[in-house]
Specification:
Strand content: 15-25%
Number of helices: 17
Shape: globular
CATH topology of the domain at 225-368 and 384-484: Beta-lactamase
Largest sheet: 6 strands, mixed
CATH superfamily of the domain at 225-368 and 384-484: DD-peptidase/beta-lactamase superfamily
Strand order of the largest sheet: 4-3-2-6-14-15
CATH class of the domain at 225-368 and 384-484: Alpha Beta
């Protein structure tokens, strides 16, 4: 009897163990299923577009087999890219305005770039009427792809392209209140209509930084020169509540330890306060200011303004950078204070800082796709403005706005004074050669009217000399065009 009882207990114990194992395995499978379904949902909602847009995804060819690639259009309904279908069914991607929109729109040959790349998913989808798609399938015909309508303004792009002329450099125009990219020009450029035929010669250029394929707006790294004084000024204001009492006597040069700094063209500015040091872009005064700053706090401010950070843009980009820590010597500190030395920035980054200042300290994420629509003009998806965050306080933005306005009314940006719009900004002349005899010309600023609102413009002309004489007139042409539309 005892033996039988023991055997029953063993059998019961064995069954109980097996049941527990079954329950555990069941829970594991259920958990795995839930995780898979969760990831599938996440993928469909957030990652599928990125995946399909990836140049490594061979499914793109499958989409192209059934859909005629859609058009890319400007905000004012100009066709910037379209697919022309020949009588034999051959398809040719055509760019009506050639190189004017080269880096903004991109190309669709030997790979993809620009909107052609990150808008690929939309261009290869078709939201034509369902029955029309069914009939096309029966007839073995392709469906018309959706169109991508951009925020780019043809008139602004055209004037920016013409104003930069044969110079190497970049121009970007933003709407600070929304983040809309109104224009994007990078030179040297290329004609996307012939890039396939010229591909071998293009990629044979081993100097990748000077390649015509580089979008200098987001990938061009330049010393910011005096435009960086915006940041230096902000840090000085933060550390010195009595900043309005600052005074300095400029003699045209200053020597400290083994460092000697000159004002542009050895100009002698005389007695000046902080506001006029900024308006006149006095290098010696800012070298003096730089030595008064806390290195750690200055570095922290720059990091907070997106240095060494990824930019929230769809285009490929490079991070802006600087070198400053507690071990930095006098030369490194003073060079950084005037935007020289090892400090590098992209035009897009400088435009974003400027746009945030114009927008009371709040940065809106730059974007270039306004909406997608089917070939009959019915909206498929809208892209709305989104906030990145507050880079600086509204009070700090107001103080910088006052200083940047003084640059136009009394300083190096005077070519923008007396217009139908109110302009503000900062010029820069950034030395880039070892003998310090050559410099890039910078301007970054904004302008506004009650009727048209505000736009921000950043211009860099490589080896263009003084920002006041080269970059400011280019910005003026952009402002003049925008506010006359």
């Amino acid at each position: 009897m005892k033996k039988t009882s023991t055997e029953q207990k063993l059998r019961t114990s064995t069954r109980g163990g097996k049941n527990r194992e079954f329950v555990i395995i069941t829970y594991l499978f259920v958990g795995a299923f839930i995780l898979m379904m969760g990831y599938f949902t996440y993928f469909q909602m957030f990652r599928s577009e990125d995946f399909i847009n990836s140049p490594y995804n061979t499914r793109q060819n499958t989409f192209a087999e059934h859909v005629i690639r859609g058009e890319i259009r400007s905000a004012d309904e100009k066709v910037l890219a379209q697919t022309i279908v020949g009588e034999d069914g051959s398809e040719t991607r055509y760019y009506p305005y050639g190189s004017m929109f080269a880096h903004a729109v991109g190309f669709d040959s030997n790979g993809k770039s620009g909107i052609e790349s990150f808008g690929n998913f939309s261009l290869l989808r078709s939201h034509a009427f369902f029955l029309e798609q069914v009939l096309n399938g029966i007839r073995n015909q392709k469906n018309p792809g959706d169109n991508v309508v951009t925020t780019l303004n043809y008139s602004i792009q055209e004037i920016a392209y013409q104003a930069l002329g044969e110079n190497r450099g970049a121009i970007v125009v933003l709407e600070p209140s929304t983040g809309k990219i109104l224009a994007m020009v990078s030179k040297p450029d290329f004609d996307p209509n012939s890039i396939g035929a010229e591909w071998d010669s293009i990629i044979s250029n081993t100097d990748s930084e000077n390649s015509i394929l580089v979008n200098r707006v987001t990938q061009g790294l330049y010393p910011p020169g005096s435009t960086f004084k915006i940041l230096t000024t902000l840090e000085y204001i933060r550390e010195h509540p009595n900043y309005q009492e600052y005074s300095y006597e400029c003699t045209g040069s200053i020597s400290m330890e083994n460092t000697e700094i000159h004002c542009y063209n050895n100009a002698v500015h005389g007695s000046e306060d902080l506001a006029h040091s900024f308006a006149k872009s006095c290098n010696t005064s800012y070298a003096n200011i730089g030595l008064e700053l806390d290195k750690g706090k200055f570095a922290s401010l720059c990091n907070g303004l997106l240095f060494h950070k990824d930019l929230p843009v769809s285009y490929p980009f490079k991070q802006s950078s600087f070198v400053l820590d507690q071990k930095s010597n006098t030369d490194q500190v003073t060079q950084m204070a005037i935007g020289q030395g090892e400090t590098l920035v992209t035009p897009m980054h400088m435009a974003m800082i400027t746009a945030a200042i114009a927008n009371q300290g709040t940065l809106m994420k730059p974007y270039v796709v306004d909406h997608t629509e089917n070939y009959q003009g019915v909206t498929v998806k809208e892209y709305k403005p989104s906030t990145y965050g507050s880079l600086i306080s509204a009070e700090e933005a107001g103080k910088l706005q006052e200083l940047m306005s003084l640059v136009v009314s009394e300083g190096t940006g005077s070519k923008l004074s007396g217009q139908s719009y109110q302009a503000a900004g900062k010029t820069g002349s950034a030395e880039f050669s070892s003998n310090k005899s050559e410099s890039h010309a910078w301007f970054t600023g904004y302008a506004s009217t009650e009727e048209k609102g505000t736009i921000a413009v950043t211009v860099i002309v490589e080896n263009g000399g003084a920002g006041s004489t080269t970059a400011v007139p280019i910005a003026k042409q952009v402002f003049d065009t925008y506010f006359s539309l």
